[in-house]
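call fold(seq) -> tokens
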Amino acid sequence: MVLYRFLIGPLVCALVCAFVCAFVFASGCYQVKAAKLGQVETVPTCRSLAYGAKPLELDLYSSSTENLSNVNPSNKNQETALPGPDLIVCAHGGAWSRGDKADRLYGANLAKALLSPRHDYASINYRLAPRYKYPAQIEDYNRAIDFLLKLDRYRKSKLVLFGHSAGAQIVAAWILSPQAKARLSQSRIKAIVLIDPPALEISRMTKELKAAFGENARASKLSLLSKVQNLPQEDRAQLPPLTMVLSSDWRGKREQQSRTFFTLWHRNTNRKDTLIKVPENHVTVISALQAKKYELFEYD
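ret:
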């Protein structure tokens, strides 16, 4: 009996701790440890929402002290909605087959660095390859944008589209897709940020690309360079400002394709587009953003 009492207390504590940790991890909203031992710095307000069936979920972050209670969908007209903050919408990297909205690169640490009183931050999950082949990821990104713009808080907001690695390719592919035309004509896209975008032009289907795009995918059909090059001038004029960041790992053909995409994007326009080459590698470039080494957004 004494042994039973001795064991049951620690066991219950362990189960409670496991439950709490699992809940916090699943929600994607958690605390970031401060630099000094013993201090905990609370992440700005966060709320997790489903924008479809699993795994279609996103985490919303705000620097506001309010509890994001006004992010519920409604039937209000855009004209009657109150002005809200603009919204940064992040598509995570991971070769179209891995990654998560709440991991150390794209979750609370990045949100904390990018938030401002004028900008909220949303990190989204999308369906992953090889189970879900491309363009499922583009379809999910489009669904997330539609969902976000129907929320009370963002009915009058503009979006900043942010993508790293495969997420950058997803953002670029969406902005050049027919689904984006309505949002562009409504001037709802404020800017896009592409960090190390891969597969802008595919000359050879590698094992990784086959897993993402399918064995029989036509490389020419996937070419984003061709799409941006062949845009009619009236469509090109509606494109938002582009900030492209290339890491030290982005060399050779990948860097050449990225620079060509940037040049084609900027052609025949007077937009304020920016290309930045940084010394950080493909992963630590996000750490540099978390440390606020680079300012990618103009908070006007």
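The chain is about 35% helix and 15% strand.
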